[in-house]
Each structure stands twice: as C-alpha cells, then as structure tokens.
Amino acid sequence: xxxxxxxxxxxxxxxxxxxxxxxxxxxxxxxxxxxxxxxxxxxxxxxxxxxxxxxxxxxxxxxxxxxxxxxxxxxxxxxxxxxxxxxxxxxxxxxxxxxxxxxxxxxxxxxxxxxxxxxxxxxxxxxxxxxxxxxxxxxxxxxxxxxxxxxxxxxxxxxxxxxxxxxxxxxxxxxxxxxxxxxxxxxxxxxxxxxxxxxxxxxxxxxxxxxxxx
Length: 214
Ligand code: PMT
Fold this sequence. Notes:
It contains five helices and twelve strands.
C-alpha cells in the first residue's frame, strides 16, 4: 500500500535569519519510513529539516514550516491508504515576519504568535482522507487521557502516545516507549529502539482498517 509519513520538526520564521523550532530529530518518522519501505510499501515521507540521510527508495518531500507541511500533506494524502503523523509541528508561528533582520533595540522583545494549521486535524475534514489515520501524541502529563482526546478530536483510528517528559525516550533519543491508544482500549509496547518499534507498528497497521463513520 501507499503510506504517507510526516517527520521531524518545523521551522517558523521570526525574520530572515531566525526561527522557532523544537527538539524533534526525525528519528521516529524516518524509522517508520524505512520499516514501511522494507516491507514493500510505497512511502511518501514529508519531513521538516533533520540531519538524517533520506532512506533509498522513498518519495521524499522536504518542507520547512507548518504551512509548507500542510500544503504537501494536502497534496499527497489522498494517494495514500495509511497516513502516520510523527512530525512535531509547531502549534504557533510569529504573526508577522519582517523582510529585514530584527534589530537589537529595546531591552525586551515581544513576539506575537498565531496558531498554525492543525494538519492531522485537517486530514479528514479538509483533505477528505478516508484511509487509516494515525496520529502521535507527545505528552508530559495525563498521557493516555490527552492522547484519547486527540484520537477523538482529530478523527484518528489510532494515536501513538509517548511521554516526552522523559530524557531516555521521545524527542531526539534512539529509543521510545509508546502506548497505542484506540477508542476502546490501550496497548503499551515496551521500551525499544525506534527501528524495532517501527517494524512492529507497520506490521500492526497493515491489518488496521479505518473505522466506519456512523
Ligand atoms: O523526531 P524524534 O526526535 O525521533 O522524536 C519523536 C517525537 C517525540 C517527535 C514523536 O514520537 C512524536 O511524539 N511526534 C508528535 C509530536 C507532536 O507534535 O505531538 P502533539 O501531541 O503536539 O501533536 C499531536 C499530533 O498532531 C501529532 O501527530 C502531530 O504530528 C500532529 N500535528 C500537531 C500540530 C499541528 N499543527 N499539526 C499536526 O499535524
């Protein structure tokens, strides 16, 4: 099948030389892309800037900002049967981006931020995606409850929850410990390398079908 995967951080410009971003390395999304490709799927990887080499045999779409990622996902998602959103997309971006570098004038500088597009939340409602929709939830508290809220609000079939308050898993680490959060139940997977978890996750997702709308 065709699998669309988002990965990495986004960069939201403050001015021509500065940006807002986060600690995502892209390791989780790239491991998923590689696992899917190795199992014979066509993979469309839409990624923010990372230091990872693009795996061979993958359709790679590099993006920078949340708006770029939203546009690429909107363009490609209906060619996929399964979409996995592992990217750490900025929730807010600067309201105004001057064309010139901001000068160091006052003692403080206040940035006004506005919401970015919720790309995962747009998959069903705006992009018309009817395949299997898998989100991630990066949480620091009430991990399962918050993940289930995202599952329902964003129309996902599954949310992969990880506790990003821990240093040994989640952002920029080689390992992760995840809980699969479905509408009716949860299923924890023990701590393991992102590669091994990705292999298990792709195998499991091959047999997951989109839930039917009532
Ligand atoms: O890249 P690594 O260093 O390997 O780290 C992996 C990871 C911690 C980034 C990954 O495991 C992870 O948790 N990814 C989701 C990060 C995130 O932004 O979570 P969230 O709970 O804020 O967002 C929920 C979901 O909505 C995610 O699927 C996210 O991709 C999506 N989202 C969020 C905001 C937005 N504007 N658009 C989105 O599509």
